[in-house]
Amino acid sequence: MSTWRRAGLGLIQSPRYGVRHWLESGELVEVLPEMPPPDMPLYIMYPAGHFLAPRVSVFIDWLRECFARPL
User: Fold this and answer.
1) Where are the alpha helices (H) located in 1-71, listed in sequence order?
2) Which of 15, 22, 60, 67 could form a Cys-Cys staple with 27, CB 3.0–4.6 A?
3) Burial of 16 (0-12, 13-18, 19+ CB in 10 A)
4) Which has the closest alpha carbon to 27: 51, 10, 44, 5?
């Protein structure tokens, strides 16, 4: 993340997982917590009708689980 964001030079809208460290350390402060932005969609694309390797299926399930729980 750019240092200007942490230098008090503006507001950002960023996924929580990307700034969690700075929020926990107090380097960034959440503003307007009562007005969270809408959820960001996550799309997983793969060719229809093709065999989906088991490891890809497991990865997709893992992503769903990760993004389903609040951070």
Assistant:
1) 3-6, 16-25, 54-68
2) 22
3) exposed
4) 5
CA distances (Å), origin 20, targets 11, 23, 30, 32, 34: 15, 5, 11, 16, 18
- Per-10-residue mean pLDDT of the chain, 71 residues long, equals 63 82 88 82 82 90 80 55
Q: Measure the CA–CA gap between 26 and 48, rounded to whole angstroms.
A: 45
Pick from 55, 65, 16: nearest CA to 39: 16
Residue with tokens 């993004």: 67
Does this model's pTM top 0.85? My answer is no
* SS3 label, residue 31: coil
